[in-house]
Amino acid sequence: MKRLLLSATIAAVTAVTTVACGSTAEQTATPPGSTASSDDAADLAPGPTDIPDGMGSGAADGVFPRTVGHFGGSTEIPAEPKKIVVIATGQLDAALTLGVVPTGVAYGSGAELVPDYISFSFPQYADQMTQFVDVGNRQEVDIEAIAAIEPDLILANETGSGDIYSTLATIAPTVLTEGTGVNWKQDFVLLADALGRTEQARGVIDTFTSDAAALGESFAGSGAPTVSFVRFTADRARVFGIASFAGFIAWDAGLARPESQQFATTSQDFSEEEIQLANADWVFVSSQDAGADSSAASYTTNPLWTGMSAATENHIVRVDDDPWYLNAGPTAATIVLDGLKNALQS
Residue-wise over 160-197: b if at least 16 C-beta within 10 A, else e? Predict the structure, then answer.
């Protein structure tokens, strides 16, 4: 498809914090199952667990019209939306989880319009997914393609689309979630509110949180192992902290993190000389590019990598890049949790 692209400038400022190495220290946030009350635990969580005060509509599921407060302002949605465009990370996942099939879909850099995990998780929508309208890269959406759909709702996030919100809002009612993986629960409920399915979304999150807590409880008396999250792209290697999508899931499960990953930002780059920063009892690693000249090939053949305790104990787990590191949605969260269960309880 010929795309007339409108570039959306995304400023991402990542502070790099130097931290000590280690693989046995507990994370600083209080995990579920501790002596803290549930309210205290929510306060200590690495990310929000519901819509912020003053946002959302307060309307019951299925009730329209509704006025939804969100990260771009306030938007009236006059009737249940039928033609929906999803732009942001995890929003296709979120909509399908709620039983809503969008019309227009954006894709992530280096990713397919419909990731494999989406196709596998939602076979009931296979025919409809072949009819998705491609509205461009999430960072360079095709405004003309969006307008041609004549949508009655556009879903995006403030992090990636805040600077084009006014343009999107002239096309259709537009609701902005916050963005970034650690906000996945809040963003899922806010998206669901725009679709008239708030309590349905909260039910999904409650089930997920209960399942995650059960994983942590399975280690009672023996101590939870430490887990590490690593992602390679063509020229970059990163470890992900507690305040990340996978990090929040590990926190929900009461899993410990190495000291090297207890930093405040979502992720931190590491060099080949700093490979030990990636080590833990278990390492969950994805590679967007595994070619001969990629960072993954270079790092994972380095003696510092093959000599990590996780490597020598065969505790390095290869995972799917899309659900673990690219799509912060509820079905992706379940896939990550299942991956942790399968490895740690085997």
Answer: bbbebbebbbebbbbbbbbbbbbbbbbbbbbbbbbbbb
